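G., the chain you wanted modeled:
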Amino acid sequence: MGRNSRKHAEQASKIPRKTSKKKGSGLKQVARTRRATRDIEQTFDDYLGEVDGDTAERFLNEIDAAIAHIREFPGTGSPRYSKLLTAKRLRFWLLDKFPYAVFYIETAQHIEIIRLLHQASDIPQHLKK
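Predicted structure as tokens:
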């Protein structure tokens, strides 16, 4: 593994599983399931191995931006798949420059990122796993 590849792999492994709530901000804490973490790491590794480190890094930046948006405006994600899967609070938010969707559930206490899925995949099947 080259110097840049190692650096990017270390970045992916340091993606926090939880984002702390700032005092007085009113924003909920964001947590990720292990499955969501694996989805993100696998996609990062795919971009790193098949494209380049810069693209992989841009992918992580897109994930950060999507999670920041979800954290600030959790109700803006589409509930489309919640109807198909009878998961009432399930929503998703699309990444801007990559063909992936971040699936999450908002509870009274926090927001849980449950999956990152490619838009062309069999999403209902993946969400049932």
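The first strand starts at residue 18 and ends at 19.

Shout if anything looks off.
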